[in-house]
């Protein structure tokens, strides 16, 4: 068996190289990666390198949305076996800090997360074989494909924001952005019984996908002012919940004008710094929540997929062979309006 990976050598430069076969620790499994999604963060690092992480050294391996099959298990692993197909939760924590002890392991300052430059960096999953802690690998039921399994990770991001928001059946929800995370949030809303959904985006093809996945109303912000249109749709009331998934300073700044008095804004997208009308939030007592990655959501997501309430692979628009990974990244950049979600077929 030969392990091969695509390394990011510098911004805009990927190269296929051999890499060491992973050594399976006692609490780990070794996975033959079959599929791995291309996340927006992967595209960012490909375009710009790691300016926010000046200590990050090149080369490194991107990719943190893998699905695959176990080929080896460590001596302490009892819940998984060779041949099991799994989805991988890419982050794992120290287990002993304040946040881990309170169940908020995703906030652990010592978290290791596949492919994300950080003090505890570990190479990602754009490689043939990967070792990972068994407790962060989840067996896929027979009715869930490995491709669907790879898409559990981005589904978890959108689902976590919805799941912990407090939204209830009958509420009106606005989703800003119909990229992969926005569509994952939309599907999660539908699975939780929320049918009054409004999706806003600039790309008509993405809005068409949102309608396909159950959006009650879509708004093309290139053609229609979303603030005025949502005010009209809700009879001047505003939405009960606003989910910002686009990671845009423009959409983030719009959120106080979309939520009703006493409503809730959930920030999921990575927006960076921007001007925000906090006075409007105070005057209307609008609550703002933030959602960072996820915790304990994979079993929930897998249960909904197994029940047929969500198809996480429905957001996939493009699949590329492993050898064509450079083409995949170019497509994500040059055809952004068409490529909602690209996936790499890693296995031969």
Automatic annotation (TrEMBL):
Superkingdom: Bacteria
CDD domains attached to this UniProt entry: sorbitol_DH (cd05285)
SMART domains on file: PKS_ER (SM00829)
Named cofactor requirement(s): Zn(2+)
Keyword Oxidoreductase tagged: yes
InterPro entries: ADH-like_C (IPR013149), ADH-like_N (IPR013154), ADH_Zn_CS (IPR002328), ER (IPR020843), GroES-like_sf (IPR011032), NAD(P)-bd_dom_sf (IPR036291), SDH-like (IPR045306)
Entries under Pfam families matching the protein: ADH_N, ADH_zinc_N
Gene Ontology molecular functions: oxidoreductase activity, acting on the CH-OH group of donors, NAD or NADP as acceptor; zinc ion binding
Keywords for the protein's UniProt record, in alphabetical order: Metal-binding, Oxidoreductase, Zinc
Span of domain Enoyl reductase (ER): 7-344
UniProt cross-references to PANTHER family, sorted A to Z: SORBITOL DEHYDROGENASE
Similarity comment: family membership: Belongs to the zinc-containing alcohol dehydrogenase family.
Name by which UniProt lists this protein: Enoyl reductase (ER) domain-containing protein
Organism field: Blautia hydrogenotrophica (strain DSM 10507 / JCM 14656 / S5a33)
């Amino acid at each position: 068996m030969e392990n091969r990976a695509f390394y990011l050598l510098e911004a805009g430069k990927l190269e296929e190289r051999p890499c060491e076969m992973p050594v399976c620790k006692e609490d780990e499994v070794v996975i033959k990666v079959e599929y791995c999604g291309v996340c927006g963060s992967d595209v960012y690092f490909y375009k710009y390198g790691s300016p926010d992480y000046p200590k990050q050294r090149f080369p490194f391996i991107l990719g943190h949305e893998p699905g695959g099959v176990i080929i080896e298990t460590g001596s302490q692993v009892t819940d998984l076996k060779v041949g099991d197909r799994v989805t991988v939760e890419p982050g794992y924590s120290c287990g002993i800090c304040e946040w881990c002890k309170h169940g908020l392991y995703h906030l652990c300052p010592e978290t290791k997360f596949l492919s994300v430059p950080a003090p505890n960096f570990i190479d990602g999953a754009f490689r043939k074989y990967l070792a990972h802690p068994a407790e962060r690998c989840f067996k896929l039921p027979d009715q869930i494909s490995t491709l669907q399994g790879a898409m559990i990770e981005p589904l978890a991001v959108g689902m976590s924001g919805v799941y912990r928001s407090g939204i209830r059946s009958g509420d009106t929800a606005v989703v800003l952005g119909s990229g992969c995370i926005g569509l994952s949030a939309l599907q999660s809303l539908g699975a939780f019984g929320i049918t009054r959904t409004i999706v806003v985006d600039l790309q008509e093809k993405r809005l068409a996908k949102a309608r396909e996945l159950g959006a009650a109303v879509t708004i093309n912000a290139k053609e229609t002012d979303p603030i005025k249109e949502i005010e009209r749709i809700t009879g001047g009331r505003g939405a009960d919940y606003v989910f910002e998934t686009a990671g845009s300073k423009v959409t983030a700044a719009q959120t106080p004008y979309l939520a009703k008095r006493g409503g809730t804004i959930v920030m999921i997208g990575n927006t960076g710094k921007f001007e925000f009308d906090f006075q409007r939030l105070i005057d209307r007592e609008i609550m703002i929540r933030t959602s960072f990655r996820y915790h304990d959501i994979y079993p929930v997501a897998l249960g909904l997929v197994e029940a047929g309430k969500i198809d996480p692979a429905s957001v996939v628009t493009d699949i590329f062979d492993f050898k064509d990974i450079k083409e995949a990244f170019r497509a994500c950049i040059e055809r952004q309006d068409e490529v909602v979600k690209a996936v790499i077929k890693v296995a031969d």
